[in-house]
């Protein structure tokens, strides 16, 4: 049977309330009593339960992860499962529990967050993606709890930090690679632009075409939704145009997979008939042939960095910069043909 605070009090010859004050690091305890209690804890190998610590007034040792998007839009997306796994691993290393939250509406999401904060169920929040509408961040910032966003944060907040990659520049570099291979007719299969990462990547695509004095054609910029099925429909739409691009830039792994899938179905050879460059992840990159000219998003590193940063903030260690950018690497393969 595991020892209790009653066992500690008996062994240390002090009251139960004295043991409780020592466990919660409260003042007004004599050094002699504190030493006796700590020695008894060590000898009995006592570990206080998380529930007991939470009810004591200091709150629970837990952090909250929320996607800031509906579950429908994250279904089947490997980014979210991978990043949650990384967050969970770092939380476990810090002896913290991880709570995953979903909500049907932004209003419900905010209400759930506020309730957990008020009830001291959590000591910090990680938001797995950012949107163009930062009203949730504005509300949560007033709760004075550490928050780390994986994605771009446009405004400055007191308690909100961010970890991201340079999505604009990465997109620019990928499109520039297509241009340097001689392509002047470049389409784009992208995710909805109410999500900040998609907006940044589409802007990088547009800016690169503009800088190289190439046409920016609206009919070649296709919203492929959030799901693989939506990306497939978008790619089909692009391939049904009377005038088609010779190359396509994809803004995420599911869009890249959609391009390969439809190209195979309609008999377009990559790269002979259609060149491709875009964002991916290591697993997808190993499954398609030819391998994609790509930037693999460092999903695990984003999760690890964001969670370590959150624990810094929980422990009152505040870095000077509130925005952290992780580096990426452009991998050039034979998915692009010179023209």
TrEMBL record:
Protein name in UniProt: LacI family transcriptional regulator
CDD domains: HTH_LacI, PBP1_LacI_sugar_binding-like
Family annotation (InterPro entries): HTH_LacI, LacI/GalR-like_sensor, Lambda_DNA-bd_dom_sf, Peripla_BP_I
PANTHER family, sorted: HTH-TYPE TRANSCRIPTIONAL REGULATOR GALS (PTHR30146:SF109), LACI-RELATED TRANSCRIPTIONAL REPRESSOR (PTHR30146)
Organism: Enterococcus villorum
Keywords per UniProt: DNA-binding, Transcription, Transcription regulation
Pfam families, per database record: LacI (PF00356), Peripla_BP_3 (PF13377)
HTH lacI-type domain boundaries: 3-57
PROSITE patterns: HTH_LACI_1 (PS00356), HTH_LACI_2 (PS50932)
Keyword Transcription regulation: yes
Gene Ontology molecular function, alphabetical: DNA-binding transcription factor activity; transcription cis-regulatory region binding
